[in-house]
Specification:
This protein is an alpha/beta fold. Helix content is 37%, strand content 25%. The protein folds into two domains: 2-87, 2-Layer Sandwich (Nucleotidyltransferase, domain 5); 97-240, ATPase, nucleotide binding domain (Nucleotidyltransferase, domain 5), CATH 3.30.420.40. The chain contains seven helices and eleven strands. Strands 6-9-8-7-10-11 form a six-stranded mixed beta sheet. Helix 1 crosses helix 2 and helix 3 crosses helix 7 (241-253). The chain is globular and about 55 Å long.
Length: 255
């Protein structure tokens, strides 16, 4: 079995594959000071939920945008799983040509998403990842990573509002009952939710205007289900896109 790990700024997502079948996935809070032993306890508990024994894990791959965590994960896999994990980074085979000024600057998760989107749809794509930051990444129909945009995530945007406006309460980010709010909470929800969806549609329109031919728009990340159903420019919602990308990259490099 293959264990795939995507370490993001806010959440760490794990998945276990048998061949190309995803047997289970979990989302943890990313904690910089968690030790290898603490990770071992967590991973064991999660695997037991799916009745998977630690000894069944024969390989692992990690995508990480929080460098201080990597040594603990490498120690975990070496000590507890007797596995040397494959790390997504410079020099790894992805099948994607990175056509930007400094390829080393691109976050590993963005490349992983690009790989998965191209392999799944085999056409020009825009991938939107609704994470701590919302990223827009463009892949050509020739498997070229063309670049993208980085925008504050919806939770960061909402938190900035609450911090700067003393009388506004913190609210749940969800779809409000109507576009025009009848109270303060619904007004904030409406502004954040519909404002963010309009931002997505507006940016997608501008990106599409610079690209030739048809472009598929794919959404992933923690808020993909919430925002992807309202933003009219999104064609597909693929919650497991990053996990799939890690599986594909591992398959390309396992020899």
């Amino acid at each position: 079995m293959l264990l795939v790990v995507d370490v993001g700024n806010t959440n760490t997502v794990l998945g276990v594959y048998r061949a190309d079948k995803l047997l289970g996935q979990w989302r943890l809070t990313t904690a910089i000071h968690r030790t290898a032993d603490e990770y071992a306890i967590l991973f064991d508990a999660l695997l037991r939920m799916k009745r998977i024994e630690r000894s069944e894990i024969k390989a692992a791959i990690i995508s990480c945008v929080v460098p201080p965590i990597l040594p603990f994960l490498e120690e975990l896999f070496s000590k507890e799983f007797a596995v040397k994990p494959l790390l997504v980074g410079p020099g790894i085979k992805t099948g994607i040509a990175i056509m930007i000024e400094n390829p080393k600057e691109v976050g590993a998760d963005r490349i992983v998403n690009a790989v998965a989107a191209y392999e799944m749809f085999r056409q020009q794509c825009i991938i939107i990842d609704f994470g701590t930051a919302t990223t827009f990444d463009v892949v050509s129909d020739k498997a070229e990573y063309l670049g993208g945009l980085i925008f504050p995530g919806i939770t960061i945007s909402a938190e900035a509002l609450f911090l700067r406006a003393a009388k506004l309460p913190r609210i749940e980010i969800t779809r409000p009952p109507a576009i025009i709010g009848k109270n303060t909470i619904h007004s904030i929800q409406s502004g954040i939710y519909y404002g963010y969806c309009e931002m997505v549609d507006g940016l997608i329109g501008r990106i599409r205007a610079t690209l030739p031919g048809k472009t598929r728009v794919i959404a992933t990340g923690g808020y993909a289900d919430l925002l992807g159903k309202e933003a009219q420019s999104i064609d597909d919602i693929v919650p497991q896109l990053t996990l799939e990308g890690l599986r594909i990259i591992y398959s390309m490099n396992r020899s």
